[in-house]
Amino acid sequence: ETGVTQSPTHLIKTRGQQVTLRCSSQSGHNTVSWYQQALGQGPQFIFQYYREEENGRGNFPPRFSGLQFPNYSSELNVNALELDDSALYLCASSRGGNEKLFFGSGTQLSVL
Amino acid sequence: GESVGLHLPTLSVQEGDNSIINCAYSNSASDYFIWYKQESGKGPQFIIDIRSNMDKRQGQRVTVLLNKTVKHLSLQIAATQPGDSAVYFCAERPQTGANNLFFGTGTRLTVIP
Questions:
Q1: Which of B25, B24, B21 is nearest to B2 (CA)?
Q2: Measured between alpha carbons, how far is A52 from A21 in angstroms, rounded to an integer?
Q3: pLDDT of residue B2
Q4: Strand-pair partners of A98
Q5: What pLDDT, in 10s, does the model give residues B41-69?
Q6: Residue B96: per-residue pLDDT
Q7: Closest chain A residue to B3 measured between Cα atoms?
Q8: How close does chain A come to B106, measured CA to CA in Å?
Q9: Which chain B residues touch A106 with a CB distance below 8 Å?
Q10: Span A65-80, pLDDT tens digits
Q11: What whole-number distance in Å separates Cα of residue A73 and Cα of residue A94?
Q12: Under an 8 Å CB criterion, which residues of A touch B?
């Protein structure tokens, strides 16, 4: 089991609402990446945070935003939720760069 | 866009047999590859990785083979156990220094006792 923890584990929201997901990285890891995993699909890269700044972004609209804190923990914020945002949101931490990502168990978001 | 695909969406093997999970990729600039195992209700679990300057890498009961000529990656699991039942993903880093991984759609491995 990795040291990456995510909260909450499950969340139900309605269309148009906003949501904040949280992630604590593994000890010694300074980089956090967020991925979205739709049912039956592989994870898709949302963005990465390093030294409290966004360090690359996938093909997701601006209503997906994030933060990284001095202790390397991170938040993913999604505004104006849409039905298609329903997915498992995964946080992964690494010791810099993009190798050996260690994932948390994810937050299952359902948008009704 | 990148394409990381798997030849077989499902694979069933007898307990004790060896398993081979295959993965094709399309980007010749990809320099790093990684295999994950995902059990139901859990996040992907790191299994093994390999850089593009290597052809083979071995771990505990697992071996990853990389054939850059045909852009093919495989994961071999020796003496497959019921606990190996899961969905397996391959992922590639599209270029050196890239901060993202592209994942395939996964192969479901079922181990028959």
A1: B25
A2: 16
A3: 37
A4: none
A5: 899 999 999 999 999 999 999 999 999 99
A6: 84
A7: A42
A8: 6
A9: 42-43
A10: 999 999 999 999 999 9
A11: 12
A12: 2, 4, 33, 35, 40-45, 48, 50, 55-56, 58, 90, 92, 97-106
DSSP-assigned states of every residue in A53-106: EEEEE-S--TTEEEEE-TTS-EEEEE-S--GGG-EEEEEEEESSTTSS-EE---
Contacts of A103 in chain B (CB under 8 A): 36, 43-46
Q: Hey, is B30 helix, strand or coil? A: coil
Give the total residue count for chain A.
112
Contact A77, A65 (CB under 8 A): yes
Residue B113 and residue B45: Cα distance in Å, rounded?
Answer: 23
- Model confidence pLDDT, tens digit, residues A19-64: 999 999 998 899 999 999 998 899 999 999 999 999 999 999 999 9
Structure tokens at A12: 């139900």
Out of B42, B98, B104, name the one closest to residue A42 (CB): B104
